[in-house]
Amino acid sequence: MDSMDIDQSNIGESPHLLLRPVSPLESGEGLPYAPENWPNPGDTWHWKVGPRISGKGYFVDRYLYPPKYLPGLDTEILRKNKVFRSRLSLQRYIRVHFPEADVQKFFASFSWSIPCRDGQGVLPQKQVQLPVYSSDEDPMRDDGSDTAVCKAGNEKCRSLMPQCEAETLPAMPCDICCGERKFCVDCCCILCCKLISLEHGGYSYIKCEAVVSEGHICGHVAHMNCALRAYLAGTIGGSMGLDTEYYCRRCDAKKDLFPHVNKFLEICQTVEYQGDVEKILNLGICILRGAQRDNAKELLNCIESTVIKLKCGTSLEDLWNDDTPTIWSDYSDSGEARENDTLQSLQDVTPIGPIPFNHEAEMHKLEEEIGEVLRALRKAQEFEYQIAEGKLHAQKECLSDLYRQLEKEKSELSRRVSGTDANSLMTNVLKRLDQIRKEVTKLKEMEEVAKGFGRTPRGVLEEYFHLNIED
Question: Using one digit for the tens of pLDDT, what is the confidence trace for 128-137?
Answer without folding.
Answer: 343 333 333 3
